[in-house]
Amino acid sequence: MSTATLSSLFLFFFFAIVTPHFVFSSPVPDPELVVQEVHRSINASRRNLAFLSCGTGNPIDDCWRCDPNWERNRQRLADCAIGFGKDAIGGRNGRIYVVTDSGDDDAVNPKPGTLRYAVIQDEPLWIVFQRDMVIQLKQELVMNSFKTLDGRGASVHISGGPCITIHYATNIIIHGLHIHDCKQGGNGNIRDSPHHSGWWTQSDGDGISIFTSKHIWVDHCSLSNCHDGLIDAIHGSTAITISNNYFTHHDKVMLLGHSDSYTQDKNMQVTIAFNHFGEGLVQRMPRCRHGYFHVVNNDYTHWEMYAIGGSASPTINSQGNRFLAPNDRSKKEVTKHEDAPESEWRHWNWRSEGDLMMNGAFFRQSGAGASSSYARAASLSARPSSLVDSMTRTAGALGCRRGSRC
């Protein structure tokens, strides 16, 4: 192991040990210049998506992106999941299904070749797209279990209508899609399997809605500007990893847990890793209830209210993230303890370890931090926050093209 690596590990563990109750950033001479420089660096990185496409220290990407034959080995992706959703295999054991038709004319009797026809099948399917397409759904896309949506090799947008619903399903992988401008749907019949269709009431208008489902992995998607949440997981959903996504231009980004009174979410476990929370975001990155949440090695470059919040005593384990606070002096706090007085939330287990705090950012820690509780909110080894830039610079849907390295 190199001297530089040892030094980085030493600093990481040193700061993890001596972390105070409040975790603040170091003073900076000119906060505005720091913010501008970070944004310049991020934008420059995004203009060079092919640079460092593998070997970045991002364990998911390094598992498959170095393979020039990724297109012939698509299902290898299912072996690369980490975190609480690591056992999500999607359609790995099924055939590859090619979406050839971007239409969605009939939510009850979808045509073969459409995305809706593919996702309702009972058999495992690895679903890919023949060409670039924009899919405007007429109703929610209700997915059956053991499905992968793999957008690599095409630019696939799901937008302008209702979007994706994972309802009482298991083993779902969603990778490489642009999901944006999602609307409310429902108040109509929707087919969810070859043998069943039923009446659905009005939906919330989420980008991806996860309801009473498990073994879910959402990776390398770009999400923005939906009616409600970008990704919501509620009603006893668990074993979820949300990784390598690029979130922009949205208010309530991510809700994990249905309500303070819905105690079935106490066993929820979600990993939030290697995501970029970018421009135009306001709050809920994520907003947690009851369960166990590992927020690790993400890049937070914008929030208008707060970044990480929660209620109903969730355990939040924040490790190795980079938090760049806004210039507004009243919005420097990363965290928000919601719907409870301090006499109550001070017992909630929220901690920050090895996080990089910039431009006055600070994380309000709480709770005694029982090791058994944090063990249930730990799902992978955090890398040093100094590596966040290289690990997240290609977050979002990738520009993979057939015949070249992704």
From TrEMBL:
Cofactor: Ca(2+)
Pfam families for this protein: Pectate_lyase_4
Keyword Calcium: yes
Keywords: Calcium, Cell wall, Lyase, Metal-binding, Secreted, Signal
Enzyme Commission numbers on file: 4.2.2.2
Region (Disordered): 325-344
SMART domains (alphabetical): Amb_all
Extent of the signal sequence: 1-25
Domain Pectate lyase: 132-329
Pathway field: Glycan metabolism; pectin degradation; 2-dehydro-3-deoxy-D-gluconate from pectin: step 2/5
Enzyme class: lyase
Catalytic activity: Eliminative cleavage of (1->4)-alpha-D-galacturonan to give oligosaccharides with 4-deoxy-alpha-D-galact-4-enuronosyl groups at their non-reducing ends
Chief location category: secreted
Superkingdom per UniProt: Eukaryota
Family under the similarity heading: Belongs to the polysaccharide lyase 1 family.
Protein name: Pectate lyase
Organism of this sequence: Manihot esculenta (Cassava)
